[in-house]
Structures are given as structure tokens and as C-alpha cells.
Amino acid sequence: MNRTLVVYAKELRDAVRDRRTLLMIVFVSIVTGPLSMLLMAQFVSSLDKKTEARKVRMVGEEFAPPLVNYLKRVDVEIEKAPADYEARVKEGSLDAVIVIRPDFYERFLAGDDSPVELVYDDSRAESQPSIAQAERLLRGFNRETGTLRLIARGVSPNLIETVKVEHVNTATARQKGAFLFFVIPLFAILAPILGSLSMSIDATAGERERGSLEPLLGNPVPAREIVLGKWLAAWTAGSTVALLTLASFVFAATLLTGKKLATLLQFGWPELAIFMAFVIPLAGATAAFLMLVATYGRSFREAQTYTSYFVSLVSFVPVAAMFAGLKDSTWQLAVPVLGQQMIFTRVLRGEAIAPLDWLLTAGVALLAAGLCVAAISTLMSRERIVFGRS
User: Fold this and answer.
1) How would you classify the pairing of strands 55-59 and 77-80?
2) Which GO terms label this protein's molecular function in UniProt (predicted)?
3) What global pTM score does this model have?
4) Which value, to the nearest 10 degrees, does the dihedral of the CA atoms of residues 286, 291, 293, 294 take?
5) Domain boundaries, the chain
6) Which single residue of 118, 266, 297, 335 has CA 20 to 30 Å from 202?
């Protein structure tokens, strides 16, 4: 065990000496994730402001006195749209424009339907609140006009409204925020990989390329103890970077302004502790797998190519799971990365995490790590792996 600790300390010292790589990893882990979250929060805040702003842009409002009167009664500001409103909508400077036809009032007085155009570009997410507001106001005017016409003819409006829908939304603000701030689970999964990537490659393919692996394995020390020390160092690096990343998210969460944003995202030290309980075993598994893949690389650059495929696959899993709409299921806990993604989302939603959830995900991750370490130890005893550099 002492020999394993010697290798462990050596690998950590080597990693600290490479200050440029170390600073880059720390900077990316601390800044990139929280910056993404703050930008997302700013985007959500801008959507809220658009939703709260009661304003519509219209063309030809002089042709629709009843509609204009209705909008004023419900405290909606009417702004005249420019002549080039279609071009403005396409370029994104206008969200939605209500266009009134010249024969609107004539058809309205005759009791006929009075078509209006709602011009918008629904490919822009930032336009959705204004579009929804315009549609809601037009539906309100339509409902009020229809009700008044029925009453004028002595018909009860209740006859055409056989079902009255009352919406009961059981989602809490925190549960809604879990979907909006998906970057936290994503970075919680990628951070340990980023932290252990360079060390995993340098400890295997890097030493192989420099020719320092042969004398190291030539010592009267079992290969498994050397591999174990290298793996523990990579595991420590990955876990440390993950801790720094999540701590920076906690700090970023305190910067969120506005009561609604603070309600949407509740990520403090208790949530960080739960995240780390699941991240640490995952960091061990990813570090071991990265070392296993890098062992086949004859050079540092070749190993980087191999490991980049693994990083791409891991980053794809959380995004694919989110957009595929997978429902939580116990079998997902037994799948590394997917299980952690499910747990992290549940933590952000404020749901309880059972001890069995941790035992299953941690057990699978550590089992995978053990198998990878055993495979690396076997490979390190082969001359083709140790001496082959071309």
C-alpha cells in the first residue's frame, strides 16, 4: 500500500508542475459552467419581462375600434407597427404584429367573422411570450364578442360552453427550474472527466511516449500497485475539479437577481453535498476508463484522439436523455452517466433521494472502475504495450 501511495504522490506532483494545463482546467471548470447558467438565467429573466409587459403592436388599428377598445379596457398598450413590420419580424427586432384588414369593422357590424393576421416568427424562442400574449388577447376579445352577441339574441352563453376547464398545474417553481438549468447536471458529469483527462493520458500514453514507463515497471513492484496509484491520482484530480465546478455553481446561484429566478433554482451547499456523493464514484469510473483507453495510445496525441470519442459519448448521453423524454426508472440507475443524470435532475427538482439510489449507482461505477484498473494492470505486463511506441 505504501508503494501505491508513493506513485499516487508522484503523479499529483507531476500534475501540479504542469501549471499551464492545471490553470486552464481550473479556469474552465470554475468559469464556463456558472457563466452558462447566468446567461440562461438572464434569458429566462428577459422572457419574464416580455410576458409581464402588456403591449401589442398593430397595423391598421383604425379599422378595428371594438378591438382597440377591448385592449384599452384590459390595460394593454397599443403601439403602431412600422411599415416594414414583416422584415422586422424576420430579423427579430419585432416579436409579433397584429394586422387588421380594412373591412374588419364592416364585417364586425354585420355579425360576420372578422379575420386578422398575427405575423410572427416562431423559430425565435425569445418571441414566444409576445406571440402567446397576442393570441391570448385575441381569444379574449373573441370570447367577449361572442358572449355579447348571444346575450343580444336572448341565448345564454353557457349553452355553448358545456365544459369549463380549470387548469391545476402540480409543478412547483423548483421543478420548472430543473429543466431550465440543465447545465448543472451536465457540468457535474463532464467536470470529473475534464479534471482527470490530462492526468490519465500522461500517466499512460505520455509516459510510454517519453520512455519513462519501462523503468517504472522495471522496479520490483507489482504492476497493479503502480496502476492503482496512478488511478487514485487521476480520480482525485477529477473529483477535485468537480468539487470546484459545483462550488462555483453555488456561488453563481447567489448572484441570481429576482425572486422568481431564486425560486426556480435552489442550488446550495446541501445540494452540492448530494451531487458530490454521486460524482465521486463516477469520477473513479471515468478516470479508470480514460486510463484504459489511453493505454492503447502510442503517443499523447493518439491517446487524446481515442479519449475524445469517450468524452463526446458521455456529453451526448445527458442531452439525449433530456430531449428523448425518458421517464425515471430504476434500471437507469445501473447505467453510468444516465443514472447520475437522473439523480441530479431529481435533486434540482427537490425530490428525495433514497440510500438505495446511491448504493446502486456507486456500486456500478466502482465495479466498472475496478474492472478497468484490472484490465490496465494486465496490459501493463505486456511488452507490446510497454515498449511499443510505433
Assistant:
1) parallel
2) ABC-type transporter activity
3) 0.76
4) 140
5) 3-45+175-387, 54-159
6) 335
Fold classification of 54-159 is abc type-2 transporter like fold (3.40.1710)
Evaluate if residue 279 carries a pLDDT over 90: yes
Residue 165, classified by CB atoms within 10 Å of its CB into exposed (0-12), middle (13-18) or buried (19+), is exposed
**Which of 85-94, 123-132, 266-275 has the lowest average pLDDT?**
123-132
Phi-psi region of 211 (alpha: psi -120 to 50; beta: other; left: phi over 0): left
For residue 383, give the C-alpha cell. 511488452
Q: What is the pLDDT of residue 246?
A: 92
Confidence of residue 119 (pLDDT cuts 50, 70, 90): very high
Does position 174 have pLDDT exceeding 90, yes or no?
Answer: no
